[in-house]
């Protein structure tokens, strides 16, 4: 059975590009436009990995990661943060929250796919 990836980003083109790459790699892909919607999806579906933007309206990536890690049902889901931000302090904060990978935009679709495959194997 194919694994399911949740992409959370307020930019539709980023979601589409990531979905295309991951679908091509054999993954089921769900989308959410912000962290609040993403959290609802993660709690209601069987999600194997979350890729979230850092800065979004309503709920950002750090808030989403904290909420996922605080819930026993979702605490073991690996989380990738997708951002333009190269601030080492933010990367350290992400690591402390439990973020597994920090991916810089613009990303190379094949590299994203390789990172997801590595995290799930």
From TrEMBL:
<dbReference type="InterPro" id="IPR050595">
    <property type="entry name" value="Bact_response_regulator"/>
</dbReference>
<dbReference type="Pfam" id="PF00072">
    <property type="entry name" value="Response_reg"/>
</dbReference>
<dbReference type="InterPro" id="IPR011006">
    <property type="entry name" value="CheY-like_superfamily"/>
</dbReference>
<dbReference type="InterPro" id="IPR001789">
    <property type="entry name" value="Sig_transdc_resp-reg_receiver"/>
</dbReference>
<protein>
    <submittedName>
        <fullName>Response regulator</fullName>
    </submittedName>
</protein>
<feature type="domain" description="Response regulatory">
    <location>
        <begin position="4"/>
        <end position="120"/>
    </location>
</feature>
<dbReference type="GO" id="GO:0000160">
    <property type="term" value="P:phosphorelay signal transduction system"/>
</dbReference>
<keyword id="KW-0597">Phosphoprotein</keyword>
């Amino acid at each position: 059975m194919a694994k399911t990836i949740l992409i959370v980003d307020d930019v539709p083109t980023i979601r589409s590009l990531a979905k295309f790459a991951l679908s091509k790699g054999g993954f089921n892909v769900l989308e959410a436009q912000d962290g609040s919607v993403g959290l609802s999806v993660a709690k209601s579906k069987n999600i194997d990995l979350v890729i979230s933007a850092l800065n979004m309206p309503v709920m950002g990536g750090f808030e989403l990661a904290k909420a996922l890690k605080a819930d026993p049902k979702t605490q073991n889901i690996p989380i990738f943060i997708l951002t333009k931000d190269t601030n080492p302090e933010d990367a350290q904060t992400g690591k402390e929250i439990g973020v597994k990978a920090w991916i810089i935009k613009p990303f190379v679709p094949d590299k994203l796919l390789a990172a997801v495959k590595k995290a799930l194997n």
